[in-house]
Amino acid sequence: MPRTVKPWNKQAKAPSFSALVQPVHTILPHMPPLEARGNRPLHMEFEQQLKALILYHLEEYTSGTELLQVLEEGGFAREEIAPPNGIKKSSFFEAVNSRGLEQLTYLFQELYPLAAATVPAEYSALGKLVGIDGSLITATLSMHWADYRGGARKARVHLGFDLNRSLPRKLFLTHGKADERPFVSHLLAPGDTGVMDRLYQCHKAFDRLQNEGKHFVCRIKANTQKTCIKSTAVKPDSIVFYDALVLLGTPGINQTKKEVRLIGYRVNGIAYWVATDRFDLCAEEIALIYKLRWDIEKFFAWWKRHLKVYHLIARSHYGLMVQILAGLITYLLLAIYCHNQYKEKVSIKRVRELRIRIENEARLLEEDPSAPQDFKDQNNFYAHAKT
Questions:
Q1: Where would a tag sit more exposed on the chain, N or C end, judged by fewer CB atoms within 10 A?
Q2: Burial call 47-84: b when 16+ CB within 10 Å, e when fewer
């Protein structure tokens, strides 16, 4: 008989933590159940596993051992996150490496639309913009599946990023040597515009995306052969110096079968050549879309630095996917929280404030159990703290 987990928002030791994870509460009832293997009981149920991983990323812990110590010794973490009888090291790492991936995948897929409905789109007039990029994760030598080169081990995250709202929306995880270009089509839905760097230039892919009803804005190499079909006049005071309908590549070898629009523009003395099938926008808007691609680079840098996502607590492909998904879920929850609380994007300032609030709330409730415990009324909580 599975143990009943106490409701997330009842008798919460830290109202702010409950506010952060509240969106998950609406999804849990529809989630596939987490089942034990064989006759072995679950030492950590999914809700506990999820909250532990959220806490790991939120608090910038750098190892699973550090998290386990907090779950054992920290009052709030021990009482509200860890299983009633605690969790042993072996049971915790077994759970991370072998259970919860189906549930985390479902949660991430359901949480993104919720976050997208909460956070307003900044560039809706430009369409559904999806930044596409990959990021390498340094692996240990024992992670043989994460083959890279020169004896090094690396895994690679392939991410689709909502540029209108600065939200991660879809991902794949492979070994480090995997080609990134085949994932483009899987990261886009019909009507989306994939925004990509030169690494993703592929003339066959440009044709295929147009056949699939998916769009692209992709920087290409300056020496790419171009067959001009029709040129368009550009404004004399614009950064744009070239706008034409072309075929890309060498005829009979790698030339596109479908015509594409090629925009050339110059910023700070650097010439950019961007291929696209977006004919509904002006050339300057295409240049702006490509500039927005930098936001996915900033996301990766922020995510790695402040949520410690690449400090590995798993070694298997399964376990690493669990950790990456938990890190993305944490970010989506932060995006919803920061918008609801401050009408702002996620920032380290607001994350630090949240950490301090959780710590202070947990300490106060340990000292005074009569303090209000309804996370929906934090003003009452802090008014009580001042009396």
A1: N
A2: bbbbbbbbbbbbbebeebeebbebbeebebbbebbbbe
Residue 268 structural domain: 198-288
Residue 55 in contact with residue 70, Cβ under 8 Å? yes
For 39, list phi and psi in degrees, rounded to 5: -95, 5
**pLDDT tens string 305-332:** 898 888 889 889 999 999 999 999 999 9
Q: Is 300 contained in some domain?
A: no
Q: How far apart are CA 281 and CA 126, in angstroms?
A: 8
Helix (H) or strand (E) holding 161: strand 154-162
The three-class DSSP label of residue 372 is coil
Exposure on the CB side of residue 366, measured as CA atoms within 13 A: 13
For 60: left if phi > 0, alpha if psi spans -120 to 50, otherwise beta; the answer is left
Q: Answer yes or no: is 149 within a domain.
A: no
Kindly report, residue by residue over 205-234, the tens digit of the pLDDT. 999 999 999 999 999 999 999 999 999 999
Nearest partner of 276 among 48, 284, 70, 363, judged by Cα: 284
Q: What is the DSSP letter of 3?
A: P
* Domain stops at, among 224, 254, 288: 288
Burial class (CB in 10 A: 0-12, 13-18, 19+), 90: exposed
Question: In this structure, are residues 167 and 332 in contact, taking their beta carbons and an 8 Å threshold?
Answer: yes
Tell me, what's the pLDDT at 140? 85
Instruction: Look up residue 214 and give its two tokens.
Output: 């998916």
In this structure, are 33 and 67 located in the same domain? yes
CA dist., res. 33 & res. 28, Å (int): 9
The conformational region for residue 38 under phi > 0 = left, psi -120 to 50 = alpha, else beta, is left
Q: Can you tell me the mean pLDDT for 44-68?
A: 92
User: Which residues, including other chains, have CB under 8 Å from residue 203's CB and lie 6 or more apart?
Assistant: 248, 249, 254, 255, 256
Domain ends where: 238, 255, 288? 288
**6, two tokens:** 């106490």
